[in-house]
Amino acid sequence: MAGAYDDRDGKIWLDGTLVEWRDANVHVLTHGLHYASSVFEGERAYNGKIFESRRHSERLHRSGELLDMPIPYSIDELEAAKYETLKANGLSDAYVRAVAWRGSGEDMGVASSRNPVRVAVATWEWGAYYGDAKMKGARLDISKWKRPSPETIPTAAKAAGLYMICTMSKHAAEAKGCSDALFMDFRGYVAEATGANIFFVKDGEVHTPDPDCILNGITRQTVIGMLKERGIAVHERHIMPEEMEGFQQCWLTGTAAEVTPVSQIGDYTFEVGDITRDMAQAYEALVRA
């Protein structure tokens, strides 16, 4: 599958029905387009099985609740929809996007309680998120923007509005020849990349930001469990930017990113070492088991 995302062959599950890809449209006065009343999930299928699928469906429901936007389909219905869409598109290794949003209705101001919550599932083939960086290590810029306080926005939700500064930061990073950008949080601690969590290695132990104002990614949680199974100490804590000078290895985790080594962040450099390579290989084996 190739070409613009609105001009492809295939099927998309929309509000309970499979429709032709090009017909899966919304009105220009859709509330989510104007006010970011939208939540979503990014998932990957390997050999016909969506990794941690149910946990993603459960998180979509939690995100909807946090935005006062109840998802009108049950967990089981979402699970069936994802697999139905994979089958309709003849895919076994694919990216899976489930998205829910406030549609067009009687409300067109900030309030939208009278507008329906709509849901769609799309699937497509998608290779390595960072291209060849998955082998040699990604280069990251440091964003001028900061991840917000949980007192200003529901940071535990995978919500569209939280990604506005991600888009701007990634554009700025790519203009510098980097793959992505690293955020600090509102207090100045190391936070996350634009669509992935971050890990560091020092003297055989792993350090990763406390997810107290960032999304506690499902891949992040999976990798922490794998590290602990190997007897590797994991420190979830606040990390100051200057500490990056003393870290020896670094990698990113996310459904799209999977486990991607990092070779450079700003002026800080890292080796693609044994722990990083082991995590990347072990994660690949796990999702295809």
Question: How would you characterize the overall build of this protein?
Answer:
With 289 residues, the chain is α+β, with helices and mostly antiparallel strands. It has 2 domains: 11-124, D-amino Acid Aminotransferase, Chain A, domain 1 (2-Layer Sandwich); 133-287, Alpha-Beta Barrel (D-amino Acid Aminotransferase, Chain A, domain 2), CATH 3.20.10. The chain has 7 helices and 15 strands. The chain has helices spanning 31-35, 53-66, 75-88, 133-136, 164-175, 218-229, 274-287; strands at residues 11-14, 17-20, 38-46, 49-50, 94-102, 117-124, 138-147, 180-185, 190-193, 197-202, 205-209, 234-237, 249-254, 258-265, 268-269. The strands form 2 sheets. Strands 7, 8, 9, 10, 11, 12, 13, 14 and 15 form a 9-stranded mixed β-sheet that branches. A hairpin with a 4-residue loop joins strand 8 and strand 9. Helix 2 (53-66) crosses helix 3 (75-88). The protein starts with 10 loop residues before the first strand and ends with a helix. The mean pLDDT is 96.
